[in-house]
Write a structure and sequence with these properties.
homodimer; DNA-binding
DNA sequence: CCGGGTTTTTGCGTACCCCGAAAGCTTACG
DNA sequence: CGTAAGCTTTCGGGGTACGCAAAAACCCGG
């Protein structure tokens, strides 16, 4: 598992770049920060930045993608006897509403970052990839749980529907004034899905 | 409505650019065609291209976005007495499986184009915007039909879930070998949604 | 049919992004 | 240790996207 110093250093650089990208972008806006700045913050050449991420937007959203994948793993880890719907809602509530922000990222940076990504056209495309990552992670976990026939669309459809529900709840949460707890929005969204 | 020659010309230019972008990209791949080429094909300057579209990818997917919006309009146009689920499935089947390709685009270009967009990383982000456009169009139509309270998440969740189902069916369709009719995939996907 | 006001197109310049290649350093391992 | 493998860096180029100001195209009232 421990691939030695080399691998650890690589992951550290990656995290540092992603976090710096997020922080700086929150502070100065998407156009106010250059790839050069992010690289400088981490102490690495601009070219190296692009060895890790193929775009500035990708770096900014990298931590969110990581989290989506953790959600998939969490669903896989639930007891197989648990009914699918319960397993999903338990996973989603624990991972998204549990203050479980990735990798020592300050809560405030995370919240403001999400908000900014959604408000900036140049980053919406990348955010949609985060959502897609969530869908993929959930779908494959669902497929593993149910051991559905290979051709079935069910895992993708259900995974995508759940990802959509999380997304709708998150949007509403970020714009709610006065603030509403994310948990209750997630519960509402998952409820709508079940009753359709 | 008719804003005179001026407006008509603008729309014509827009369509021509979008179609040229799609055709050329199908023929030569995303990196094989420059903005310059697309502009030349239509007989306008490269600078003008960017007056209409803020990126090459946006132009390529513009027709698909237009179609998503037509789907929303179609849902609004269904009889209000019809139950929501029926209205949705009728709309989706008619708009997506009905060979209803936008604006005189050859079926083959449309099919190959979709395939290429989904296979090209540089364009996946833009495709996700198409899916998001579908979600928005459906959501707002659903909200209009149900006249739900302003704060409800239901329209977004259901609209997004349906968009996801369409998307999953489309993916499977494009990769099916031997070919499976899109209609039956859509029916399956919508079915999974209803039974979850 | 024609001139003034408006909108669109265009050319030019700029800032930035992303990537390929080759050289330089660092880590891994016998 | 010393050689092999892997990352980082430097350099340079091809493209994209957009601000700005001048030129062209269009619309309308006289």
């Amino acid at each position: 598992m421990e691939q030695g110093l080399r691998e650890r250093k690589k992951q550290a650089t990656r995290q540092a770049l992603a976090l710096a990208a997020l922080r700086l972008t929150v502070e100065r806006g998407f156009d106010g920060v250059l790839v050069e700045d992010i690289a400088a913050e981490v102490g690495v050449s601009p070219r190296t930045f692009n060895n890790y991420f193929s775009s500035k937007a990708e770096a900014i959203c990298a931590l969110a993608v990581d989290r989506a994948q953790r959600a998939g793993a969490a669903l896989r880890a639930r007891p197989p006897s648990e009914p699918l719907r319960e397993a999903i809602s338990a996973t989603v509530l624990a991972e998204l509403a549990g203050g479980a922000v990735p990798e020592h990222v300050p809560d405030r940076v995370w919240f403001d970052g999400l908000r900014m990504v959604l408000a900036t056209p140049a980053m919406q495309g990348e955010y949609l990839r985060v959502r897609a990552a969530m869908q993929d992670a959930l779908s494959s976990a669902i497929a593993a749980r149910l051991s559905t026939p290979p051709g079935s669309l069910l895992p993708e459809v259900v995974g995508g529907a759940v990802a959509t529900a999380c997304d709708a709840a998150t949007h509403r949460w970020l714009h709610s004034d006065p603030p509403v707890p994310l948990r209750s929005l997630l519960e509402e969204a998952l409820g709508h899905l079940a009753e359709y």
